[in-house]
Amino acid sequence: MKENVWKNYSKEDMNRLNDICDDYRKFLSVSKIEREAVRNSIELAKEFGFRDLEDFILSGRELHKGDKVYVNNRGKALALFVIGEEDITNGMNILGAHIDSPRLDLKANPLYEDKEFAYFDTHYYGGIKKYQWVTIPLALHGVVALKNGEVITVCIGEDESDPVVGITDLLPHLGQEQMKKEASKVIEGEKLDVLIGSMPMKDEEEDAVKKNVLEILKNRYNIEEEDFLSAEIEVVPAGKARDFGLDRSMIMGYGQDDKVCAYTSLRAFLETKPCKRTISCILVDKEEIGSVGSTGMESNFFENAITEMCQLLGHKEVTATSRCLSHSHMLSSDVNAAYDPLYSDVMDDRNASFFNYGVVFCKYTGSRGKSGSNDASAEFIAKIRNIMDTHSVRFQISELGKVDAGGGGTIAYILANRNVNVIDCGVGVLSMHAPWEVTSKSDIYEAYKCYVAFLENA
Ligand code: MN
Ligand code: MN
Asked: Is residue 217 classed as helix, strand or coil in its secondary structure?
């Protein structure tokens, strides 16, 4: 029978666990959006000696075993590789996770004034319970791209000296009708407008509050109202990730779906010495809205990178990329719905994932009869079980909730479509997709161990 993993940790385990979780918490706090996650990941990778694959391509320099390269896809997705001893067409061991998270995006024409309040109009991104996003401190992260090609990075609400913004809710005293609505209608999408100011500009008649806010933005970022047309500003919960629980056994933070898998994958990948097989770590955007677009997993960017590498490794044949993919193994790492005793009715006890029982593997995800899932093969799961047991990684195999309770998808099926052997894998989360999600430190540690064991042995 499996046991709560905390019971078996040595002092060394505890030190290593705390190191990893402290670093993760810091990374999470400064990597709330995909662009920040890519920037911080590249910075880390450079410390480990990684170089832009583009430098090799442009200079025509060949790749050799042990070379460490990365591909930055438009600042929103990243693929990293360490060339192994074996030929690349023998396949790679791949870790994949996503770095976008549910949030509110500013609309293209976001700014308006109503009754001398200035607001940003938003369009939510990903699956959220809208009522969770009101009355909490929010921050603005992203970029404003100017016509002259300059891209201005925006971050307001994270520094202690910064103001925060937020969305108001109706007081209970006047909420009688509101409280009769079903939860999906209590706060409607068009009501998710962010209050950003109330002070009018002096000597201005019309839209004086809005003009005042624009003046502030002009002073801080040198942008005009029109520049929002070419901006990507994401509204996210303001503040840092924290230790959670009186025993500090957990972490509460925004965007743990899926930065908890992204960070542990990246760290395991960077810390692994060059292996027999080529290893890779992919951090992608847009998973929360269907892996679409040029920076989502459906994009060809990963395959294109492999093709470029094959060329630089001396493979001129057109079949090199497909042979590499067909022989590759992958952990598609995404969070799982951890068992919550308060909501046990949507869980099947025997097939749920539990906090502190290790990294979670999912043979299939999907909904309505596994629809949309990657159904990992029994043979591949047996191989994974063997690797985990041999390397003392604590794991559990589970489903995402009861049959017909709902469901979800990941990037697994996309790589599987490219004929990669893939299984879903990740860390259990409580309050998934809420502004503040909760994970267990022991599961984070086991995920890290799992990724190392997989890269070295799959
Ligand atoms: Mn996810
Ligand atoms: Mn998600």
From this structure: helix
What's the 250 CA to ligand 2 centre distance in angstroms?
A: 19
Find the 257 Cα to ligand 1 centroid distance in Å: 5
Ligand (nearest to CA of 126): 2
Which token pair is 61?
A: 């320099």
H and E: helices and strands count for the chain: 11, 22
Q: How far is the CA of 87 from the centre of ligand 2 (A)?
A: 35
Please give the share of the chain, as a percent, with pLDDT higher than 90: 93
For residue 102, report the distance from its CA to the centre of ligand 2, in Å. 7
Is beta strand 278-284 parallel, antiparallel or unpaired with respect to 92-98?
parallel
0.85 surpassed by pTM: yes
Residues 70 and 42 sit within 8 Å (Cβ to Cβ):
yes
Question: What are the sequence ranges of the domains in the chain?
Answer: 5-101+254-457, 103-237
Give the pLDDT confidence of 391-446 residue by residue, as tens digits. 999 999 998 888 888 878 789 999 999 999 999 999 999 999 999 999 999 999 99
**Smallest-distance ligand from the CA of 336:** 1
Ligand nearest to the CA of 425: 1
CATH node for 5-101+254-457: 3.40.630.10
Ligand nearest to the backbone CA of 412: 1
| C-alpha of 106 from chain center | 20
The listed CATH number (3.30.70.1070, 3.40.710.10, 2.30.250.10, 2.30.110.10) that belongs to domain 103-237? 2.30.250.10
